[in-house]
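Hi everyone, sorry if this is the wrong subforum. Our group has a chain we'd like a structural model of before ordering constructs, and none of us has done structure prediction before. Sequence below.
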Amino acid sequence: MSPAAPAAVRTCDSRVRAGIDVPGAYFTAGFSDLLLGKSYEALDSYAKAVQLSRAGRHVAVALDSLRRIESVAGGLEGYAWVVRLLQLGLAATRRPRKAALAAVQADFKARKGDTVYRPYVPAGPPPLPKD
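Answer:
Right subforum, don't worry. Here is the predicted structure as tokens:
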């Protein structure tokens, strides 16, 4: 891998510390980490970017960037995780696009038997501590 990708991550870290385009810095760091094979770091950066994004279009642009490399993404561990995270982030925006909601619904239906998607609902409130 070219030394440009680690340099991009360092530049993004500097931008975050300086408070310059923080969501954009996290999106770029996530993409660079994904290309470097650092799937957990990529997922962390993308999650922070989605959380800090004020507009769904930023998430949509990041998702489009990932779709452009889809043909070679088979070897990128964490690619599917990041795509799913961005789809959920896009569907959770104030004005979600119909396509974003449809993608999340299709993914959910495809994984109907997957235990990852089964919510945990407690039977009642947590027990109070005993004095």
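For your construct planning: The chain is about 65% helix and 0% strand. Residues 4-18 form the longest helix (15 residues).
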